[in-house]
Amino acid sequence: MGQSNETITLTTAQAIIRYLAAQYIKIEGKKTRICGGGFGIFGHGNVTCLGQVLYDHNDVLPLYRGQNEQGMGFAAAAYAKANLRQRFMFCTASAGPGTANLLTSAALAHANRLPMLMLCGDTFLTRLPDPVLQQLEHFGDPTFGVNDAFKAVSRFWDRITHPAQIINSLPAALNTMLDPADCGPAFIGLPQDVQGWTYDYPVSFFEERVHRIRRQAADVSEISEAATLLKSAKRPMIIAGGGVQYSGAVAELTAFAEAHGIPVVETIAGRANLVNNHALNIGPIGVTGSNSANTIAEEADVILAVGTRLQDFTTGSWTAFSKDAQIIGLNVGRHDAAKHMSRTVVGDAKMALVALGQAASGYTAPTAWTDYARAERSKWNDYIAENTRVGNGPTSYAQAIGVVNDLCDPRDRVVAAAGGLPAEVTANWKTLDIGTVDVEFGFSCMGYEIAGGWGARIAQSENEPDKDTIVFTGDGSYLLMNSDIYSSVLTDKKMIILVLDNGGFAVINKLQNNTGNESFNNLIADTPTATRQVRVDFEAHARSLGAVAETVDMSGLGEAFKRAKASDRTYVICAKVDPYEGWTTEGHTWWEVGTPHITDNAKVQAAHVDQESTRSRQRKGV
Prior knowledge:
Largest sheet: 6 strands, parallel
Radius of gyration: 25 Å
Number of domains: 3
Distance between the termini: 56 Å
CATH class of the largest domain: Alpha Beta
């Protein structure tokens, strides 16, 4: 490694890591590295060059050894979410299948607008040894390979074909990941030979830099128009999404709602914007929502949607609102702000809520409307109290959620993902403190739970090490991806994991039955090729991965959770729940699913007719 006064000779890999190590951000006045480190599985595409320099920098950019590349990506996404998108992790994988395994987690980060940097191996730029191990050959285009698939799931994509290119590529990737409107995963393909090639880089490229996340002020005319519309409202409602937390606008949202007496409902991503007992918190909205939120949504005449992308589970496939309701889309992203012909306020939520509040000064929602919303929430609270009570019927997800909710610390972080648990956690969890719930439903990804819990715990151990990360997972997701139990034990990042076993993919079995179909290939018991019925011993499996584990019935869950809280190691609690009964039956809006228009099955045909009967309520728009 040579050096002069103005340039320094480095390999491409050395320059990438040196640059990342020099990038900082201030969070609550404290300067910290934007990149918290990385997750890596080495192979021939990244071990010899990138691996060598990561070894040299492990004190400042710690590298966590993954067990599966998809799990690494999930952990990185959860880390970014826990850090409110102000910090990120990188993932490095070898060329070929190692990199391909990151596709699903890149899609999750893209859907959820989360920063994640992928530094992935690629085939040799010279092509002298082609075809190499794990290379896909496209006969008409030798430049086309597996890494090109990431163009669909990345906000920024590049393939480095010369060492000098990182001088432009790395800042562009970082700026994308820090952009509140364009935030998402960045992919950089690194051919194996280029990683080791040298270049005389400007020393200034590696100087320490402190970044900030841009706060975009909304257009004055948009604020004025939105305020005029809001002041005309007789039945206003606020939808609070995950963007409220990313903007750091929880206090501004709360103050805005209180100043104008406007009821607030939460999306899945915005599930912990308000604490459970706040007087204006009317509950979660949508397909996995509450009767209270959905009732007022049907009657609201002006809806202020803050920091939400208004996905179908929020909007009930656009049946949750009156067709006459007018929407104000307040979002830093133009694409999200303008959905369904909304009146747009494009800008940072923290700033825009203050500006909108000032423009709407003097307006207060009619007291009768706010009282009505609170009364509906009171009825929903009574339902949840009974729904989560142990002994109220067959063992259920809701009962387990209620037990944990009553015993956890207010600052413990709850993680759940695809399957039945996101709906049950969203509907039944009583938020004890702000920003403590991570229900991954942006991409609805099975397998996120344990891997995401690990990433969330890494972030939590940096900020609140005395609190716990609590993971709710079903048996289906556990079987799909469980190896990061081992990761958490290896790295001393304790999680409490509840494995709630209902014998298969019970929530999809429920959807199957609700659309007139017979149970088929979802529950283990209804899998025709499963000629031997075997239940997995999840306790024994978790123990084999180094965790403490026990199996309990619902009556013993509370004491088991206390033991888990006292443990210094990842603790897995296994319990069986009923696959057919005990689901939360209230609080659901209509949800569009594809059903066959023609069938010889009378039950399926009847279900199709019933499904289509409420389509008339669906709003039309873009």
